[in-house]
Amino acid sequence: MDGGDRVTAGGRPGIPLNGPAVDARADIRGTLASWADLIVEGRTVRLPLRTVPALAAFLRRHLAWLAVHPAAEDAAAEVDALVRRCMKIARPRLERRIPVGPCIVQSCPGRLTAVVREPGSTLPPAVECDTDRAHIWPPERWRALYRGRACDGVPPGLSAREISSAWRIPAGTVYWLANEHQWRRKRDGRQVFYAQEDVLRTLGRDRLTG
Questions:
Q1: How far is CA 140 from CA 53, 91, 128, 153, 158, in A?
Q2: Assigned domain for 83 exists
Q3: What is the distance between the alpha carbons of residues 26 and 106, in angstroms, rounded to a whole number?
Q4: Are 129 and 160 in contact (CB under 8 A)?
Q5: Are 105 and 146 found together in one domain?
Q6: How far is CA 34 from the centre of its chain?
Q7: Which helix (H) or strand (E) segment is 136 a member of?
Q8: I want to staple 155 with a disulfide (CB 3.0 to 4.6 A). Which of 173, 186, 189, 205 is the partner?
Q9: pLDDT at residue 8 above 80?
Q10: For the chain, what is the domain count?
């Protein structure tokens, strides 16, 4: 693929790599591993190998347990978002991108873009933020977006992905901490946001402000 990175050995040309695909594979492994960690903590079972096939098989075996866990909806939402991102890379399609304006999420510096995809695309049209992938509005929420109503927009707070990234802890651990310390939460569609005050009380401010 043109523009791809190349692996070299001894100065010889190597295999061309697709950078976004490499990142996607790492995201898949990381996401599956974080939910496997949650299951290991909750069920006291042996951790599987850190490979995608082994992690996927492990999650499949414990799916019934995870399905009734308080974080089940969050797990489904995170995996769904991951699949969408990976499908975008695996099956790129032509799309039109129309600038909309500043992101309406409190304190977010991002810019919104309406993404209109070609007919037959597996992904629906959406308004997306260029700074935070969790800030996304499907067609059924566009009216609320354009009205700029805070009650219909993304509520203030921190998503599990933001917490995981800032404090460098697995997403599964974030959900465990949220339940253990009874963090207040608000839901926007399938996305959950935890009260920043509660998160900082548990984890400290240094990571967020640094």
A1: 36, 24, 14, 12, 23
A2: no
A3: 30
A4: no
A5: yes
A6: 12
A7: strand 136-137
A8: 186
A9: no
A10: 2
Same domain, 53 and 140: no
Residues 108 and 198 in one domain: yes
Tens-place pLDDT, residues 186-195: 776 677 888 8
Query: What is the value of pTM for the model shown?
Result: 0.41
Which residues contact residue 26 at a Cβ distance below 8 angstroms, ignoring those fewer than 6 apart?
none
Could you tell me which of 181, 175, 136, 179 has the C-alpha nearest to residue 35? 175
Same domain, 63 and 98: no
**How confident is the model over 52-71, as a mean pLDDT?**
91
Q: What is the mean pLDDT of residues 73-93?
A: 80
Task: Give the pLDDT of residue 96.
Answer: 74
Q: Are residues 34 and 106 in the same domain?
A: no
pLDDT at 4 (0 to 100):
44
Same domain, 32 and 123: no
Domain range for residue 197? Answer: 94-210
Same domain, 105 and 24: no
The helix/strand/coil state of 203 is helix
Q: To 5 degrees, how large is the angle CA 34–CA 192–CA 202?
A: 70
Tell me, yes or no, whether 84 lies in a domain. no
